[in-house]
C-alpha cells in the first residue's frame, strides 16, 4: 500500500474568464484566462494508492460518492497511474471548505487538490507547471489553482503547452468580497453552459476577440499596479461572458434577483468613492474585487441587505500546499 499524501488547494476566481473549449478531451480552452486565487475558500484532499481496493473510492465531505463522481476523478488519477506505472486503485478523501457546485469554484480547488495529492502519492513529484496540465484534465479552472496570486492559464495548442503561469503575488492590497446569493447546486454546470454557448451564441466570436484584448490590458494593469484599470477590465469581461450566455439557444442566465441587488450595491459603493468591481461565474454569486484594506467597509455595506454569514472576505490565496508535511513541490 502506498503512503497517503494530503494537499490543500485554494479556489480561484477568473477576472478574465475561460469560457469554451476547443478540445473537450484534453480540456484545451478557446481563450487564455487570468484569475485571482483566494485564501478563504479551499479544498483538502488525501490520496493513497491501495492494492487491497477493487476500484477507486471517493469520499467528499464524508459522503461516499457514486459511480459518476468517481469516474470524474478516476480520469485524472489514470493520468498519474499511466505516467508512474501504477496499477493500484486509489482511496481518495476530500473536504471542500467552499460550497460544492455553486459557482464558487469548488471544481477548481477540488480538482487541483486531487491532482496535487495524486502527484505526491504516486511519487511523480511533477513541477507545478506540469502539474497544472494534469489538473486541467479534471477541470479547466483547476489549471490555475496550482498557483497563488494572479495566475494566467495560457491556452496553448496542445496537451503540454496549455498550462498556468503565475503573473504576480497580488500582495499589493488586493482582496475579494464574495456575496453568496445562493449556495445550492446550480441548474446548468459551467461545462454544459460553455458548450451550449460556443455552439449556439452569435455573440461568441466577438467574445473571443474582445477577451484577447482584455487579457493584454489586464496584464499591463497588474504590472503597473493600476487598481482602477484592473477592476474596470474585470467587470467588463465578466459582463461580456454573461452576455454570450443570454445569446445562446435556448437562452439562459445564471443571475438571480439578488445577484442584481449585489451589483447595484457595488455601483453605489463606487459612487461613495470606494473602488470596487464585480464579477460572476456560472452561478448567482457575486464576487467583488477590491482593496483588501476596503474589504470591511464593503462587507458592512453589503450586510445592510445580505446576511453577515453570506458576505465573506478573502485575501490572495497561496500556491498548492503539501499538508502531509513530507513531500516537496518544485517550481
Ligand atoms: P463550481 O462552481 O463549484 O466549480 P461546477 O459545476 O463547475 O461547480 O463543478 C462542481 C463539480 O466539481 C462537482 O460536481 C464535482 O464533480 C467536482 N468537485 C467539486 N469538489 C470536488 C472535490 N473536492 N474533489 C473532486 N471533485 C470535486
Ligand atoms: C465561468 O473550469 O468549471 O468559472 O473545464 O468544464 O470543468 P470545466 O469548467 P470550469 O469552468 C469555469 C468557468 C468560469 C470561468 C473561469 O473560471 O475561468
UniProtKB/TrEMBL annotation:
User: What organism is listed for this UniProt entry?
Assistant: Pisciglobus halotolerans
Membrane-spanning residues: none
Q: A GO term (biological process) for this protein?
A: isopentenyl diphosphate biosynthetic process, mevalonate pathway
Which terms are listed as keywords in the entry?
Answer: ATP-binding, Lipid biosynthesis, Lipid metabolism, Lyase, Nucleotide-binding
Q: What is its EC number?
A: 4.1.1.33
| Example GO molecular function | ATP binding
Which Gene3D superfamilies does the UniProt record give? 3.30.230.10, GHMP kinase, C-terminal domain
Give the enzyme class.
lyase
Q: What is this protein called?
A: diphosphomevalonate decarboxylase
Q: Any one cellular component term from GO for this entry?
A: cytosol
Extract the Pfam families matched here: MDD_C, MVD-like_N
Task: Please give the family membership noted in the entry.
Answer: Belongs to the diphosphomevalonate decarboxylase family.
Amino acid at each position: 500500500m502506498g503512503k497517503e499524501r494530503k494537499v490543500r488547494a485554494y479556489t480561484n476566481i477568473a477576472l478574465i474568464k475561460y469560457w469554451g473549449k476547443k478540445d473537450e478531451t484534453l480540456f484545451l480552452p478557446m481563450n487564455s484566462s487570468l484569475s485571482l486565487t483566494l485564501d478563504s475558500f479551499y479544498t483538502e484532499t488525501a490520496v493513497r494508492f491501495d492494492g487491497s481496493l477493487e476500484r477507486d473510492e471517493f469520499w467528499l465531505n464524508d459522503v461516499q460518492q457514486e459511480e459518476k463522481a468517481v469516474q470524474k476523478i478516476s480520469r485524472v488519477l489514470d493520468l498519474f497511474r499511466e505516467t508512474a506505472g501504477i496499477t493500484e486503485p486509489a482511496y481518495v478523501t476530500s473536504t471542500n471548505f467552499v460550497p460544492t457546485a455553486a459557482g464558487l469554484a469548488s471544481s477548481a480547488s477540488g480538482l487541483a487538490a486531487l491532482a496535487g495529492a495524486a502527484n505526491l502519492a504516486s511519487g511523480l513529484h511533477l513541477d507545478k507547471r506540469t502539474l497544472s496540465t494534469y489538473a486541467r484534465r479534471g477541470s479547466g479552472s483547476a489549471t490555475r489553482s496550482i498557483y497563488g496570486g494572479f495566475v494566467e492559464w495560457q491556452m496553448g495548442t496542445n496537451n503540454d503547452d496549455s498550462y498556468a503561469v503565475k503573473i504576480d503575488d497580488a500582495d499589493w492590497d488586493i482582496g475579494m468580497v464574495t456575496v453568496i446569493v445562493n449556495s445550492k447546486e446550480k441548474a446548468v454546470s459551467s461545462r454544459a453552459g460553455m458548450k451550449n454557448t460556443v455552439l449556439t451564441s452569435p455573440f461568441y466570436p466577438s467574445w473571443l476577440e474582445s477577451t484577447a484584448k482584455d487579457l493584454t490590458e489586464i496584464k499591463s494593469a497588474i504590472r503597473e499596479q493600476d487598481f482602477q484599470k484592473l477592476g474596470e477590465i474585470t467587470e467588463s469581461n465578466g459582463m461580456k461572458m454573461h452576455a454570450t450566455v443570454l445569446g445562446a439557444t435556448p437562452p439562459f442566465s445564471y443571475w438571480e434577483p439578488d445577484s442584481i441587488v449585489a451589483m447595484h450595491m457595488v455601483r453605489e459603493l463606487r459612487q461613495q468613492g470606494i473602488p470596487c468591481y464585480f464579477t460572476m461565474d456560472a452561478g448567482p454569486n457575486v464576487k467583488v474585487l477590491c482593496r483588501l484594506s476596503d474589504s470591511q467597509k464593503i462587507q458592512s455595506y453589503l450586510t445592510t441587505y445580505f446576511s453577515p454569514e453570506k458576505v465573506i472576505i478573502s485575501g490572495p490565496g497561496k500556491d498548492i500546499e503539501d499538508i502531509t508535511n513530507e513531500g516537496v513541490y518544485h517550481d
